[in-house]
Amino acid sequence: xxxxLWSLVYATFLPIVWSIIGGGQRARAEGGFxxxxxxxxxxxxxxxxxxxxxxxxNAWEALMxxxxxxxxxxxGAAAAAxxxxxxxxxxxxxxHGILYCMDLASLRSLSxxxxxxxxxxxxxxxx
Length: 127
Known about the structure:
By secondary structure, the chain is mostly helical. It has a single domain, classed as Four Helix Bundle (Hemerythrin (Met), subunit A) (Up-down Bundle), CATH 1.20.120. The protein is 82% helix and 0% strand. Helix 5 runs antiparallel to helix 6 (105-126). The radius of gyration is 16 Å and the shape is elongated.
């Protein structure tokens, strides 16, 4: 499997990582982990738990940007450029979640734009 497809697999599991971190925060909340209605409990969190939940939701949204990965793969764009761009995307998305949890909004936005730029570059590679 190419490096670019591995980056897609990585991005697919990234929302689960942030969900586990948010779940740990829900477990620490008053009354413990509410498995009957986790979204309701997540909505009551503040601080790190709230930010981890937001990173989780944003990671799912970012997964939609995987379409250019498929386009670049199917069009036979240069392998080295695709792999490097996939790695940049994964690093940017990982940093986005970390910076979200750390409440560093400006750096988080920068990492979001880097991930978006990587996605746009994959589209350029495919054309």
